[in-house]
Amino acid sequence: MATTETTATRAKVKGGVSAYRLRFYLGLIITNIVMLMIVVLTAIPYIYMAFSAFKRNDEIFGTPLTIWPRVWVWDNMQRLLSEFPYGRWYLNTAIVAGVGTVLSVLLASLAGYAFAKYNFRGRNLLFTLMLLTLLIPFQVLLVPQFQIIRALGWFNTYQALIVPGAVTAFGIFLMRQYTIGVPDELLDAARIDGASEFGIWWRVVLPLVRPGLAVLAILSFTGLWNDFFWPLIVTTNPSMFVINLGLASLVGPYDYQYGILLSGALLASLPVIVVFFIFQRQFIEGLTAGAIKGF
Does the keyword Chloroplast apply (predicted)? Predict the structure, then answer.
C-alpha cells in the first residue's frame, strides 16, 4: 500500500515538473519570437536605407518594393562626396559631438560629485530647482538662448553649437545617482593621504562611476550627432552646417535625389553604431547599476 502511494506521488510530482518545464519553454519560445519580431521591425528601415543608397530614384519608389538593388549605382556616393561639402559637414558634426560629449561628461560628473558628496547650504533646494528645469520644454528656451548667442556674436561658430548643450540637468542627475554609491570611506582615506579635491574626483570617483560615464557619453554623443533643430537656428553658413542640416539643404523644391540623401544618411549613421558597439557592455552595465541606485 505504501509502495503504491509512493509511486503515485512520484508520478504526480513528475507530471507537475513536466508541466512546469513545458510552460517554461513555451514562454521562452514565445518571448524569443516576440523579441525577434521587434528586432526585425526595427532593423528593416535601416537595411532598406543601406541598400537604397545604391539604387536609382525610379527603383527606390518602384513597385514591387525590393530591398536588394536590381542595378548597383555607385555614383550616388561619389556624387555626394564630390558635388557637395559633405566632408566639411561630417567634420563639423564630429567636432560638435566629440567636444560636446567630453564637456558634458566631465562637467556633469563634477556637478554630480558636488551634489552627492558635499553638504552645503541649499544643496537640496538647488538640486530640486535643477530637476524642475527638466519640465521646461526646449522650445520655451529657444528665444532666450537665441538672444544670448546673438549678444555674444556666436552665430555660425562652434561655440554656438557646443556650449548650450555642454551641461544638462539630466546628465547631472544621472552622475549624482552613480556618485552616491561611492563609499565615503574611500574619499576620506584619499584626503588623509593628502589628495586634493580635484585629485579625489579624478583618481577615485571617476574610475568607480565608469558605467555611468559610458551611459552619459553614449546618450550625449547620440543626441549631439543627431541634432537638427538647434543647428538650424544658429547656423546660416553652409560651411558650418552639420550633417543633418546639410542633407536637408539638398532637398530642392522640385528635385529629390533620394539615392544621394540615403547615401549621406548611411554614412552619418556609422559613427553612432560604432560608438554604441564599443561601449555597449559599459552601457548595459550602467543601465543595470543605475536601476538600483537610490534617490
Answer: no
